[in-house]
Structures are given as C-alpha cells and as structure tokens.
Amino acid sequence: MSFYLVQFLSGLATAATLFLVSSGLTIVFGVTRIVNFAHGSFYMLGAYLGWTLVERWGTTPLGFWGAVAAASLAVGLLGALMEIGLLRRLYRSPELFQLLATFGVVLVVQDAASWIWGSEDLLGRRAPGLRGSVDILDQPFPLYDLVLIGLGPLVLGLLWLLFNRTRWGTLVRAATQDRDMASALGVDPARLFTGVLFLGSALAGLGGALQVPREAVNLHMDMAIVVEAFVVVVVGGMGSLTGAFVASLLIGQLQAFGILVFPQITLVLVFLFMAVVLVIRPYGLLGRAEDAPPTAASPGPPLVAAAGAARWAPALLLALLAAVPLVAGDYALIVLTEVVILALLAASLHLLIGLGGLVSFGHAAYFGLGAYGAALLVKHLAAPMPLALAAAPLVAGLGALATGWFCVRRSGLYFAMLTLAFAQIVWSVTFQWYGVTGGDNGILGVWPPDWAAGKAAYYWLTLALAGGALLLLRRAAFAPFGYALRAGRDSALRAESVGIDVRRHQWLSFALAGSAAGLAGGLYAFAKGSVFPTLMAVPVSVDALVMVLMGGIQTLSGPVVGAALFHLLETEAMSRTDWWRLVLGTIILVLVLAFPKGVAGFVRDLWTRGRDA
Amino acid sequence: MTGQPLLSIRGLQAWYGRAHILTGVDLAVERGEVVALMGRNGAGKTTTMKAIMGLLDRRAGSVAFDGREVSALPPHRVARLGLGYVPEDRRVFTDLTVEENLEVGRQPPRDGAPHWTPERLYALFPNLAEMRGRRGGRMSGGEQQMLTLARTLMGNPSLLLLDEPSEGLAPRIVQQMADALRALKAEGLSILVSEQNLAFAAAVADRASVIEMGQIRFEGPMRSLLEDEAVRRAYLAV
Q: B104–A185: do the CB atoms touch at under 8 Å?
C-alpha cells in the first residue's frame, strides 16, 4: 500500500514539472497562436542556467532559490527577445512559418548550449535544506519532490489571479480574442505579446531550473519535454490553464503507474492516452471549439498549372537530373539520390499541408513504415527488391488509411497531435518489438541486387520511381480530387454545401500521401542498406515539415526545392563543421525573415510581378 | 483653441488587398459637431472608419486629428490620442464580463474630453448596470451594441467614430441609441457616425457627408440633405 502511495506522490512531482512547462506553452499559444517548438529549448536553457547559478550560489537555501529564480527570469528575457526580434515580424505570416522560425531557434539553442556547457551530462547540487527524505508510511520520499508537488497548484493559483484579477491579464485575454479591436481601444498588442512570451518562457525556465537537483542536465532535454508538454496542452485543451493542470496530473500518474502495469509499452502509453482523449473529446478535456487553431490554409493565389515554356520545366529538370551520372562521382550521386527521395517525402507531406490544409507532425511514420515494410520482407521472406519496393507504398498506405481515419476527424493542431501520437506509437512498437524489428539495432543488409547496386543505376531507379510518383502527385493536385481537397481546405462548410465529402477526400489524400512517403521510405532503405527506428522518429517528421515550409506551401515545386535546399545545406554544413545545427538554424531564421512566403513562393512572386510590370 | 476642425481628412485612399476601395475621401468634423457619413452598402463607410483608425494594411492621404497628422500611426497610438472607434460588428470580447470589457477600454482622463467611469456609464446605459458580471457572449445584440459604445467611451475620447450603430437593432433599442448619442453630444463630444438609416441620422446629426464609390458626393447641413431629393435618390435610395 505504502509503495503505491509513494508512487502516486512521485507521479504528482512529475506532474508539477509538466504543468510548469506546459502552462507556459499553453499561455503562449493561447495569445499568439504560435506553436512554439522553442519552448523546450527554454526549458533546457533554464536547466543549464540553473545548474551554473546553483553551482555558484546554491550552498544556502536563499542562494539556491535565488539561483532558480534568476535562471527563470533570464530565460523569460530570452523569450521576450525572441518575440521582439523574430516572432513580431511573423505575426502576419502563415502560422506554419512561425513554427518553422521557432524550430530554427531550437537548432541554434542546441548548439549554443553545447558550446557553452559541453555535451557531457551535468549533475547538479541538491537543494540545501531539502536533501533528505521523509518517511511516508515507512517509505522514504524525497523532501524536494514534496516541495515541487506544492508548487504546481501554487503556480496555477498565481496564474489564475494574474489573468483574472489584474488589468494586464484582462488586456491579454482581450487581445487573445480580438487583436485588432484591442489595439483600436488603445492597447499595444506588441508589448502585451512580449510580456506573454516573457511569462511563458520564464515558466519553462523555472521548470528547467527546478530539475537541477533531480536529474542530469543534458542536450536532449528540449525535444523530450516539448513533445510531452504538447501532449499535456492538447489533452487539457489548447489555451486552458486548468486543462493543462488536470492533464499534467493524469499524465504524471500514467507515467508513475504505467511503468508498473505495462512495462512493455511505457514509451507509447502517453501517446495512446492522448489519442484516446482526442478521439473521445475533440478539443481536449477542457478546450472549446473556438480555441481550435486555424488550419494551414494560407491566403495565397490559387495554384495554376504552368503554361507555355514553363510547362516543360519538370521534364527538362528530370532530363538534366538523369544526365548527372555522366559527370558526377559516387558521393555526389549518393547525396543526390537522397535528395530525390526526400523530395518525394516532402511532396507527399505537401499534398496534406498545401492542398489539404492538414499539418501532420508525424509524417515520418509512413516513411518508416515503407522502409520497414521493404526491409522486413527482405529479412524474413528474402523477397527480391522489386517486390519489397512494391510493398513499401502498400504497407505505408494501409497504415495511413487506418490511422488517417481517426486523424481527419480532427482539424488544426489537434489533427497534428493525433498524427504525432500515431507516429510515436508506430515508432515505439518498432523500437520495443525486438523479435521482429530488431529494436534499435535495426535491420541490416537491405541492399539492392547486382543490377541496381551501382550508385548510378540505383540513382536512375530512384529518379524513375520517385519522379513518377511526383508526377502522379502533381496530377492529383490538378485533378478534380485536388480541387475538392483545396475547396475543403479553404472552406469546409462551403465545400460540403456543394456536395463535396471533405472528410473522405482528406482521408484519401492522407492515404495517398502515406503511400508516397512509403515509397520514399522503401527507396531510402535500399539506398542505405539498413533501417533503424530513427527513420520514423520525431526529427524526421520535423525535417520533412521544414523542407515543405522552406520551399513554401503555396507552390507544387516548393517542397521539391525545399527538400533539395534543406538536404544539401544539412549535408554541407555537417561535413564542414560540428556546429551544423547553428548554421542550419541561422539559415532557417534568415530565410524565414527574408522570405516569409518560402523560397519558391518568393521566386514565383518575382516571376508574376515581372510579368505584371 | 485653433480654428481648424477637430478631424480633417484629405484625399484618403484605402485598399483591401488589391481592391481599391477609397479613391479620395475629404471629410471634416468640427468640435462639438455630429456628422453623419451616409451611403449605401459597399459605398466605403466602414472602410473610411477603419482607414482613419489605421486598421487597414494599405492607405494613403492625410488624416489630421486635433492638428496632428495620424495617418502613419498604428491603431493603438491613434486611439490614445482620443479617437474612439465603435465598430459596426460590435466585437465585444465575448469571454470577458461587462466590467472587464469596460476595463480594456479604460484610458487616463483627457483634457477637453468628458471623463467616464463605469458608474457614469452604468447611469447612461442602465441595462449594462444590471449585468456587470455577465460575459459579453451571453448578451443580446442590442446590449452588445451598448457595451461596445460604453467600452469605447472608457477611453475618454474627444471624437467618436461610430460605425452603423443602428444596424440590426430593434426600433426600441435604436431609440435608446439615438438618445444616448444626443446625451453624448450634450457632454461636448464630437461624433462621426456612419449610417444608412436616414431617420436615425436626421435625429442625431448636424451635418451629413454622402459617400459613393469611395468618394464624397455631397456635403452639407443635415437639413439640406433632407430637402435635396435628387441627392437622396442618387446615393441613398436602394
């Protein structure tokens, strides 16, 4: 009995941290509508700064808590700086561009932290005066965790007072609902939003700094916490503080007891829980319909099939690419093969984002399903490559058909989080099912047969298959199917009223995008000769998203351009410097600020402006 | 006190995206005066109001308020100079209570403009007094219209921009609104009110400007508009 009580209490302590971080995230989202990936980075910075300051001052209780507060405030200032220097310039950009910008910040902070603090885990000092434990029904429980447990409700109460009993809070709530109206009443929204970013980031920093006595500080804290915080925010209902609190409590307990009941699926439990909650309650536990974020649809000119000379551009590009092996060496061909594969991955995601207005955070699942589908056939059935390559889009397409049925029943960020949940479920099954998938050892020896083993031969094969798939995707965009999809994106209500079954089209596009990504995955498996669970992990989904956004979502060529740009930049930066994240992140930030419509959108604007003039 | 009008607009142009809505509006409001901006749907009344406040992405021309050029200022700076804007679509903060809505509009007292407190506004709009704690989303259209007006008054404006205050309201509420406007005028407030309802405009306004296709086509005392059937038929009749 007492063991369970202690387990319950440690669940509460986890919940307190989760709540601190996710309350900041939900506040920032509620006001700015920005999906702030950098929130996890602020948590990590809070932990690192907290570590440094606690090392220096943390010998007395006053010094320790002073250090925690100072770290939190410093991180808050960084958040305010990010609002002034970056986000403020993007409030009128498509929402996804803001997301891309925050992702650039994630990369920069990663390398900055690694540069300042090194890549070793840092163990912090314990909190003075709270080092011991208390006996709870004869079981020891850390005193420090008890303090954390009390901190959660305290912060909730203070935030409630701030938002409901102060003028600042009232103004923030007003600006959240109607930015223009508030400013017409004399409220400066920019200053409010700077304040909100300060508050939200300081909460993340506080959550991070409080971890110093509990766990080692390292460079992986950012992504781990931001994914969990998003789960909490979505389960609780976007923008709802009380919802985030309740969700933190539930997920804290789930983690504390889940490990006892289902040790096999600990990694997936939280995501399963989120999927179930979202299927039952579309807007989370305490969310409301109007808080659902708008979709990715961006007010841009409609897609136009290229006319005249431009119509032959894809064929010309294909011919040029096909001629590359005549002049290029093996290394260049390997990189180019990857570029072509990633272009297909990005284009398949663009089908969802650009045409369907559906932003997926878990597209890597289908890339990975295709790769594993092919690799498993080779490994267990010794299937020949053509068969394995044919199976890749099939397996991924079926997976997408099954998961998509749930996902398209939600929209906006809830859709995104469901795709993320399914991707995490697929990933953790692959990761933990050693008997079949080999777990994190992956599957090795997935090589093409002799006739396709040469770098040039495999490159041509990839070009033919991926190029064909790209043309099919392009065809779909200009077919009635694509029109219906776009109509549903721009106004689901109006599309429905002229007889388009929007959800059905979205579902089919989800399956189509999944199987195209699966083909890319299959090609990738044979290009690399092996598959690993990382293929379907969050970073791959994020990379695909970055490619699409870099290229711009308003053109069909955008994702292809974005994939090439992103992969070449990444490969180049990685080969030249250890600080490639810094380089890549900075490039992303510059691109976002310079081309708020994406690179391809920018070029097209130049093109049409040139013709208008 | 200078001789120039409180609000003076010269050659105001405005766009929605690529659509060129205002092609050159000239308008003036003297101190203590109520001017009705009349015109059909789509003539440019609301766009004029928004362009004055700086709520549109693209505009050109001159807007001088109290002798100061404001056409380059963001909306909150315009509002802080004493221009109070009441939008046509009400736009109360539905999550906020009546009291909180008023709080959002509050600005420091201003010289030369009536000073409003919630208590004074509750006296002017007794309906609102009975529902201080109610959320904006749970009020009727007429109550919301009163709240929007009261909220803007909390900023102690010297000039009120009132966009179609009578639109979609029951006759009894329209009457209350007209009474309220006359009371505000008696306090010394200047008002630019856009209207389609001639009777309402005639009940509150001293002068009228008639807008059509983004330009002012008639300008004169309210009485001469009432007497000029040709103008009314050309620009106001549906």
A: yes
